[in-house]
Design brief:
The protein is an alpha/beta fold. The chain folds into 3 domains: 206 residues, 3-Layer(aba) Sandwich (Rossmann fold); 164 residues, TPP-binding domain (Rossmann fold, 3-Layer(aba) Sandwich); 154 residues, Thiamin diphosphate (ThDP)-binding fold, Pyr/PP domains (Rossmann fold, 3-Layer(aba) Sandwich). Helices cover 37% and strands 18% of the residues. It is built from 24 helices and 23 strands. It has a 6-stranded parallel sheet with strand order 5-4-6-7-9-8, sandwiched between helices. It has a 6-stranded parallel sheet with strand order 14-13-12-15-16-17, with helices on both faces.
């Protein structure tokens, strides 16, 4: 392809991005599905006008908060198994820095999102411009440098021709199963408007192949040997199982070998909740069945997981002194964690190879082990039913989860992110089909919930999306309710009001606190503390003012009726229910390291420190 095309940098950038495709297993997708943005100075006249000119080629979505739009883009890409993504753009100053939290959320969760923040003038002659951060040490800096530690790839375009080399690198990272995350390309406002004679070849259709690498033969042989030598093996299924679309292969592996699996937050829903080898959630927010098997396991297969401290219970979950790990992961960085035997491969491909070899060897776990697994799963299911039917007044959070999960259809999706809900949902939500559970827990970012629910619904409008959110997160970022209504993407928001940051209140209590600073109360004029009456916040009125349908429930029966009504509505619906802040779903044979002060004037803290020191003795290095 010869010749050139004279375009502004912003025009050329959009033309390039519209011609990017990905292919896996012979199925091809256009990679970028739209642009989220809030126009402001620094991009309205460059990229903004280019978006208007090319509005028939790529859709622009108007959002309410720059952090929220990155969350929406992240949720969209996650629901699409990272095979499609969104672009987010902003103005120069606070619009750009608002996206930093979203960038961290995407990168930590290994989800692709392209960020195009506006930047200051590259030519500098009019500096300092509005919202410019000045530095006495250098002129080569702007607030967009803050994106560097939370981006998998970062660049600043100071000449229009630089996108010819920068954008292909950005796509290399965005489409990499191992290296993906937020990609940030800062675009100075003057450079966006400058023209260049771009080669026609730059705009050709590019198809990025998503590989399914198989494990190295020698490592596969060693893994088979380790599994055959084990007596109590188990699997930790992480997000890599879902991104690889390896649910069927996981089921075949477990059923052929008798090896049970547990689930991380990202991996929950790899198989239905009632699969006979599904131990449920593992770690700090885990079930008694998974955590008890993990405690004594002599071999753990880390399948597509990054092994966060919640999964490993701060390195206390695996107490067998002889435990070994096999790390099956597309990324070497995660595959070797816990000194694991690394199988660097795609989950689907790796499971197929491992299953074939173990079947050929006639391997299966002992019947006594499988009977123990069945018994523990039955005990956990009985415990879950107890939590679903406490009969508390006001209703407990666990009971609300029970009502909603039992009401949801197999194709429905539950979305949540932070606070006490993720821990309870990890244990209790009953996923019936893959992708039915969408939790952002890599960054545990409050405010992700509603924006993320919008992204999930945009990714698959055929599915009902239930957003579970508490009052703390709602107050931080609920604006994208408006966007869901504007764009016609219906969400059902189940709002739980417990009058504060109740998750942290419980955590603080475990550290010896008396709940200081965590409840939404008036300041007591006598004590000067936030210990007065509850704040009279009318969340339902707030949601109604944003355009949502609103329903209120006070009891289990009323919540069930509200869910029935909400399903018949055709736009975003907000169901408000007050929950009992004193009733927590307990932990099960697990612990999380949250440092307690070594010296304190409070006896409760001194007691908590003594207990903390005992628990820390179980932490270990895996060498």
């Amino acid at each position: 392809m010869s010749g050139t095309r004279r375009l502004t940098m912003a025009q050329a950038m959009l033309q390039f991005l519209c011609n990017q495709y990905v292919e896996r297993d012979g199925i091809e997708h256009q990679f970028f599905q739209g642009v989220f943005g809030i126009f402001g100075h620094g991009m309205v006249a460059g990229l903004g006008l280019a978006l208007e000119e090319y509005k028939d080629q790529i859709r622009y979505y108007q959002c309410r908060n720059e952090q929220g739009m990155v969350h929406t883009a992240t949720a969209f890409a996650k629901e699409k198994n990272r095979l499609q993504a969104m672009i987010c753009t902003s103005s120069i100053g606070p619009g750009a820095t608002n996206m930093i939290t979203g960038a961290a959320t995407a990168t930590i969760n290994r989800i692709p999102v392209l960020l195009l923040p506006g930047d200051i003038f590259a030519r500098r002659n009019v500096a300092p411009v509005l919202q410019q951060l000045e530095s006495p040490q250098t002129q080569d800096i702007s607030v967009n440098d803050c994106f560097k530690p939370v981006s998998r790839y970062w660049d600043r375009i100071n000449r229009p021709e630089q996108i010819i080399t920068s954008l292909p690198e950005a796509l290399r990272v965005l489409t990499s199963p191992a290296d993906t995350g937020a990609v940030t390309i800062a675009i100075p406002q003057d450079v966006q408007t400058e023209a260049y004679d771009y080669p026609e070849a730059f705009f050709r259709k590019r198809v990025h192949h998503i590989p399914r690498p198989r494990p190295e033969e020698v490592m596969l042989d060693r893994a088979v040997q380790w599994i055959r030598e084990s007596q109590r093996p188990m699997i930790i299924a992480g997000g890599g199982v879902l991104y690889s679309e390896a649910s069927a292969e996981l089921a075949a592996f477990c059923e052929a070998t008798g090896i049970p699996f547990s689930e991380t937050q990202a991996g929950k829903g790899s198989l239905p909740w009632d699969h006979p080898y599904n131990l449920g959630a593992i770690g700090v927010t885990g079930t008694l069945s998974a955590n008890r098997i993990a405690r004594d396991a002599d071999l753990v297969i880390n399948l597509g997981t990054r092994l966060s401290d919640f999964t490993t219970a701060s390195k206390t979950q695996f107490e067998n002194p002889a435990v070994r790990f096999i790390g099956m992961n597309i990324g070497a960085f995660d595959a070797v964690k816990h000194s694991a035997l690394p199988l660097i491969c795609d989950a689907k491909a790796g499971l197929r190879d491992l299953t074939q070899r173990l079947q050929a060897a006639g391997y299966k776990t002992a019947e006594t082990y499988r009977a123990e697994i069945r018994q523990l799963i039955a005990e956990w299911n009985q415990e879950a039913e107890r939590l679903f039917n406490l009969g508390a007044s006001p209703i407990s959070q666990g009971e609300v989860i029970g009502v909603v999960t039992n009401f949801a259809s197999p194709n429905d999706v539950m979305v949540c992110a932070a606070g006490g809900l993720p821990g309870d949902l990890h244990k209790l939500w009953r996923v019936k089909a893959p992708k039915g559970y969408h939790l952002e827990y890599g960054y545990s970012c409050m405010g992700y919930e509603i924006a993320g629910g919008l992204g999930v619904k945009m990714a698959d409008p055929s599915r009902e999306v239930y957003v579970l959110v508490g009052d703390g997160s709602y107050l931080m970022l609920s604006n994208e309710l408006v966007t869901s209504i504007q764009e016609g993407y219906k969400l059902t928001v189940v709002f739980l009001d417990n009058h504060g940051f109740n998750c942290i209140r419980g955590l603080a209590a475990s550290c010896g606190s008396h709940g200081f600073g965590n409840q939404f109360k008036f300041r007591d004029p006598q004590t000067g503390l936030l210990t007065g009456n509850n704040l009279p916040i009318d969340f339902a009125a707030n949601a109604a003012s944003l355009g949502a349908c609103v329903l209120k429930a006070n009891t289990r029966a009323e919540l069930e009726q509200a869910l029935e009504k909400a399903k018949r509505y055709d736009k975003t619906t907000f169901i408000a229910i007050e929950v009992n802040p004193e009733i927590y779903v307990p932990g099960y044979d697990s612990w999380w390291d949250v440092a307690v002060p070594e010296v304190s004037g409070l006896e409760s803290v001194r007691q908590a420190r003594a207990a903390y020191e005992e628990k820390r003795k179980k932490e270990r290095y895996f060498l």
